[in-house]
Structures are given as structure tokens and as C-alpha cells.
Amino acid sequence: MRKVCFVLGFFLLLMSCEKAIEKPKNLIAKDKMIDILYDLSLLEAIKSQNIGGGISNKSANAFIYKKYKIDSTQLSESNKYYATDVEAYKKMFETVKKRLDDEIKKTGGSATITPTPVNPDVPQVQ
User: Fold this and answer.
1) Does residue 69 register a pLDDT over 70?
2) pLDDT (tens digit, 9 = 90+) per residue, 92-116?
3) HSE-CB for 12 with a 13 A CA cutoff
4) Residue 18 falls inside a structural domain
5) Which domain does 44 fall in, by range?
6) How far apart are CA 42 and CA 88, in angstroms?
7) pTM greater than 0.90
């Protein structure tokens, strides 16, 4: 019984180990991927602020695919591949954040978030 449990446990351990993601054949270059992540961040900000009537996910994605001449599968596979190396992926997002902060400073804005003043006449959700 012990041998069966040991073999079963060993088998489950082997099955639980995930294989490393192979490099996709059509991997998006790292610099281009950073540009895509930057544009996606801008589009997400537009969507969240409902600027100009907002923008739909479908049109935002279509914009990215057309601008960078990629498709959804290529973007998804490349993103998944880069995300497997957490430290490198984090550095990519730090680069995106720096570009966003630089753009904010160019426009005379502040990169720090200031809280919106509370209107005492409007009930607040706690």
C-alpha cells in the first residue's frame, strides 16, 4: 500500500509540474511589445475615463492589431511568453510606466494621483 501511495504521489508530482512555455514562432519583439503595452495602457485610461464617449474593447483591440500588424493570437501568445519571466515582465511595465510619467510631465500634469474632493451633498459609498 505504501509503494502504491508513493508511486501515485510521485506521478501526481510529475503531472503538476508545468512545462515551460515554448517561444512562439511569431513572437513579438520585446521593444514592440513594450510599445503595445504602452498603447494598451493609454486605451485603458481612455475607456476608464469615458473620454470622448469612451471606446469599446473591440475597437481598442482592432486599433492595436491594425497599428502593429498583429492578430489576437500573436498578442496573446507573446504576452503569455513574456509573462513567464516575471522580473523581465516587471521591467517591461516599469518602462511603460516611465513613458507614461514622462508624457504626463510633458503636458504639464502631475504623475501623482490627487484625490477628488468629496461633495457633502452627494451620498458617499463606503
Assistant:
1) yes
2) 999 999 999 999 899 887 656 555 5
3) 6
4) no
5) 32-106
6) 21
7) no
